[in-house]
């Protein structure tokens, strides 16, 4: 069996890549290296080039887009129609029939190119909303291989999605997949509802029948490489990475609240800045004692809504700083740079509060990274939006409604005042969840469901590597084990842990730097 991964963006690894690659890209590349395989997608460039590069037993096959394709397929239908509507933002959804035609055209072109590269025993794993109709196009060309799809962002209910012209036609193409993976149970329910309501499909448990095809739908909450992140955080403190040293010098003993996001309206950055301002207004005694560091590198700047958000976040931060700041204290710092994983892990570890308040998010990896980076002996507190998929697993965070500025402001206060014993208790439970449902667990579980081969037995995939552990963390591991945590690589225990994680919560839930599959 060979694995074929298809994603909107493909980054061919070079010698610098290790420093910036995120967990997802690395996890997919590891899976490809294990089976031998092919990674196919857009090069990220505009032009007419198509090329294949061999790295070990993995072939990277990339193609450029024309400027018209980039406008219609990528910026137009994917990012101005599908992205907002999937994030429940009907008001921001801009539908153009020509964009939709461009979207279908690129999927058709990808299918034509890919069909020629596929071998009979390949298993194909397609990623994200840019490529929803790709399997249907492959089937039209006679491809009968097993094809899976993973949707990284939320899937809204049928009455929201139904407002998008051609949504029924688009949703119908999903029947070409054998397995559809979503981030949460809510997304699975919405998807099944959409297939039934918009396309007249028949539901049988987690399977949906449409015409001659049967598709399995399942939630696979994505994780991070917890162990790697924990090690990076510890190392960044030991080595005092430059931006951290500077932050330490400029903050002194002041507390730090941190937000890290791509500059995207789904992440609730402007609302978060307002909530921090509200916190300082309601609790004047806190002024001068704490700052918010918001790291938000711009993304998709060619889309007008993103340029507007950039302007608004500057404006709100400027207004609050002018209103509340002192000559020796700046309440809010907005930084628009991408940082290395090490620096980012160090910032998380330095911050007493991780403020993760998206208005809607498929999962949100920052929430998991923040927990992974904490010092087990003196951890910070995660404040998490109930509308992030991560909230379904991470019920021990302070769960908030990001639309309620006062509620978020009070959660910041509660987090800053939380006694150490409670911080440690919450941290241990959160760490247990993210550790037992890490990126390796996610990848194995998905591929097991897609291939039908029980990878956890080691029949196809060797057991995962376990990293060297340092002293400080054995405490956490011991705490986890005492609570019945899984041994890494034991998928059976992990499955139980994620089920528990889901129950724990009171609420359901590009071209970017470290999630480069989009
Ligand atoms: P994204 O919308 O990109 O992903 P998220 O899950 O938060 O959102 O991942 C962002 C990643 O970018 C994190 O790994 C973070 O560390 C990194 N990042 C952010 N700012 C950075 C900076 N300044 N420097 C360096 N790295 C930075 C989509 C969905 C999510 C889903 C993921 C994975 O929108 O809901 O969790 O896919 O499936």
TrEMBL record:
Protein name as catalogued: Trehalose-6-phosphate synthase
Similarity remark: Belongs to the glycosyltransferase 20 family.
GO biological process, one term: trehalose biosynthetic process
GO MF annotation, one: alpha,alpha-trehalose-phosphate synthase (UDP-forming) activity
Residues that span the membrane, as ranges: none
Region (Disordered): 456-518
InterPro entries (alphabetical): Glyco_trans_20
């Amino acid at each position: 069996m060979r694995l074929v991964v298809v994603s909107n963006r493909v980054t061919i690894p070079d010698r610098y890549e290790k420093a910036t690659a995120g967990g997802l890209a690395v996890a997919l590349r590891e899976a490809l290296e294990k089976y031998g395989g092919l990674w196919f997608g857009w090069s990220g460039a505009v032009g007419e080039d198509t090329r294949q590069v061999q790295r070990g037993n993995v072939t990277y096959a990339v193609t450029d887009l024309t400027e018209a394709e980039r406008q219609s397929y990528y910026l137009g239908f994917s990012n101005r129609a599908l992205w907002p509507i999937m994030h429940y933002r009907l008001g921001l959804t801009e539908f153009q029939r020509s964009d939709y035609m461009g979207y279908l055209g690129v999927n058709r072109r990808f299918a034509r190119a890919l069909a020629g590269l596929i071998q009979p025993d390949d298993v194909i794993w397609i990623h994200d909303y840019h490529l929803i109709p790709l399997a249907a196009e492959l089937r039209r060309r006679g491809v009968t291989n097993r094809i899976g799809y993973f949707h990284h962002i939320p899937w809204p209910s049928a009455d929201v999605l139904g407002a998008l012209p051609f949504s029924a036609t688009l949703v119908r193409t999903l029947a070409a997949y054998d397995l559809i993976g979503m981030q949460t149970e809510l997304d699975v329910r919405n998807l099944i509802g959409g297939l039934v309501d918009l396309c007249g499909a028949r539901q049988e448990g987690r399977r949906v029948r449409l015409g001659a095809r049967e598709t399995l739908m399942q939630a696979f909450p994505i994780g991070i490489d917890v162990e790697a992140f924990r090690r990076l955080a510890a190392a960044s403190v030991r080595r005092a990475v430059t931006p951290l040293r500077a932050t330490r010098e400029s903050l002194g003993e002041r507390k730090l609240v941190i937000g890290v996001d791509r500059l995207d309206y789904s992440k609730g950055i402007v609302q978060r800045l307002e909530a921090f301002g509200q916190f300082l207004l309601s609790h004047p005694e806190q002024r001068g004692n704490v700052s918010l560091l918001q790291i938000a590198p711009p993304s998709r700047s060619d889309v007008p809504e993103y340029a507007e958000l950039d302007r608004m976040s500057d404006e709100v931060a400027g207004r609050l700083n002018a209103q509340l700041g002192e000559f020796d204290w700046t309440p809010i710092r907005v930084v628009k740079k991408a940082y290395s994983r090490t620096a980012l892990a160090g910032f998380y570890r330095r911050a007493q509060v991780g403020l993760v308040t998206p208005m809607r998010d498929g999962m949100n990896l920052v929430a998991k990274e923040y927990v992974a980076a904490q010092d087990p002996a003196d951890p910070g507190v995660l404040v998490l939006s109930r509308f992030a998929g991560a909230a379904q697993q991470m019920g021990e965070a302070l769960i908030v409604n990001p639309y309620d500025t006062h509620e978020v402001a009070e959660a910041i206060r509660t987090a800053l005042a939380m006694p150490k014993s409670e911080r440690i208790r919450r941290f241990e439970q959160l760490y247990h969840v993210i550790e037992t449902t890490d990126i390796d667990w996610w990848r194995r579980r998905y591929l097991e469901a897609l291939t039908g081969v029980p990878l956890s037995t080691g029949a196809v995939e060797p057991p995962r590597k376990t990293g060297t552990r340092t002293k400080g963390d054995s405490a956490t591991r011991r705490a986890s084990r005492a609570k019945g945590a899984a041994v890494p690589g034991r998928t059976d225990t992990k499955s139980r842990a994620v089920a528990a994680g889901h129950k724990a919560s009171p609420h359901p839930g590009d071209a970017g730097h470290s999630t480069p599959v989009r």
